[in-house]
Specification:
Number of helices: 13
Strand content: 5-15%
Helix content: 40-55%
Strand order of the largest sheet: 3-5-4
Number of strands: 5
Shape: globular
Order of helices and strands: HHEEHHHHHEHHHHHHEE
Number of domains: 2
Low-confidence stretches: 305-315, 356-360
Mean pLDDT: 80
Radius of gyration: 26 Å
Oligomer: single chain
Length: about 350
């Protein structure tokens, strides 16, 4: 009996010392203000469906620099121009690390793209590749004909729809994906192939769904990222969806790479890179790279399809459908990588420029 009491006393004393040491260690740091965290969940109870708005609301109470607790992890939030400049410019190297998330693991080949890869030689090389090879001024100028062709096709479609309600989001999504798909992959996958003998690896609908799912899953707040010991439960079902999407993209990207390698072999010495996948495959074969670019790295980089074409709307003026007033518009947002509208905005396009400007 005395032995049991001695063990219990020793265990309690050890735990007490650990807690005291931990508290003393924390007190040495000048931590930013913030809400008091709950056990296990931290401050996740304060984060709603739109995390950016929840954090903004908290910043109004605790200031432009605050600390919140996401499950097991402390998170410092900067909410002003000055704080953003301090974090992203003045101390950029200190804050250059990236968290290990399920999205990075399952949708980017285990953190192999520039978005989720940790700061280090691989990331620095990837950044250099983007600046010097993939997105250099000369390279982007060589794709100008693609942008012109797709914008002309969009304007022609919108002009034909003049005076009628249209789903503008679909048109803008199509032209964005067409431009980026042709620049990155060499052809567009949002339209049926004109070659009836060519077997489609994915249908246009499947391709769009894959892109939408990629954006959504990279913007969700997965509870397993904040509380790692419950990640295996996949309480929200996101990890299962990420694994399914990963298999779809891998099958698709293998097909794309095989096509490009086949063309390179066929053309031999006459071969020249015409899109970003060609450039990446060329870099992957370069023995002088500091960090070898593996095949999964090529697929991860190629998979990052994202663009904003903000100048598409300048050729038209927009009005609401008859009988609808602007006061009745519902501009509520839903959370995602780009915070889309909860209810689509319906607008009618009318030509603003002279008729001869629009393609027939």
């Amino acid at each position: 009996m005395e032995t049991w009491v001695s063990y219990a006393f020793a265990w309690l004393a050890t735990v007490s010392l650990i807690l005291i040491a931990s508290r003393l260690r924390r007190s040495k740091f000048n931590r930013p203000p913030g809400p008091k965290p709950w056990p296990i969940i931290g401050n996740l109870n304060l984060i709603g469906e739109l995390p950016h708005r929840s954090l903004h609301a908290l910043s109004q109470k605790y200031g432009p620099l605050m600390q919140v607790q996401f499950g097991s992890f402390p998170v410092v939030v900067g909410s002003s121009v000055e704080m953003a400049k301090t974090i992203l410019k003045t101390h950029d190297v200190i804050f250059s690390g990236r968290p290990k998330t399920a999205a990075g693991k399952y949708t980017t080949y285990n953190y192999s793209d520039i978005t989720w890869s940790p700061y280090g030689p691989y990331w620095r090389q990837a950044r250099k590749m983007c600046l010097m090879e993939l997105f250099s001024a000369k390279r982007l100028e060589s794709y100008e004909y693609i942008r012109v062709e797709e914008l002309q096709a969009l304007l022609k479609t919108l002009h034909k729809s003049s005076g009628r309600p249209i789903n503008l989001k679909d048109h803008l999504t199509d032209v964005s994906l067409n431009v980026i798909s042709r620049m990155v992959l060499g052809k567009k996958y949002t339209a049926k192939s004109s070659d009836h003998h060519e077997k489609e690896i994915v249908t246009p609908e499947e391709f769009k769904e894959m892109i939408d799912e990629l954006f959504l899953l990279n913007g969700v707040l997965d509870i397993g990222d904040s509380i790692p010991w419950v990640a295996f439960l996949d309480l929200q079902g996101y990890i299962k969806r990420m694994k399914v999407l990963s298999k779809k993209f891998d099958r698709f990207m293998e097909h794309v790479l095989d096509e490009h390698e086949s063309r390179r072999t066929t053309e031999d010495k006459k071969w020249e890179p015409k899109d970003m996948v060609d450039v990446l495959l060329q870099l992957a074969s370069d023995p002088n790279l500091e960090v070898k670019l593996e095949r999964h790295g090529v697929k991860a980089f190629s998979q990052v399809i994202q663009a904003t074409l903000s100048n598409l709307l300048h050729g038209f003026k927009w009005r609401l459908p008859d009988g609808e007033r602007k006061e009745e518009l519902d501009m509520e947002e839903i959370f995602g990588l780009s915070t889309p509208k909860k209810h689509p905005l319906v607008a009618i396009a009318e030509p603003r420029l002279p008729a001869h400007v629009y393609p027939k």
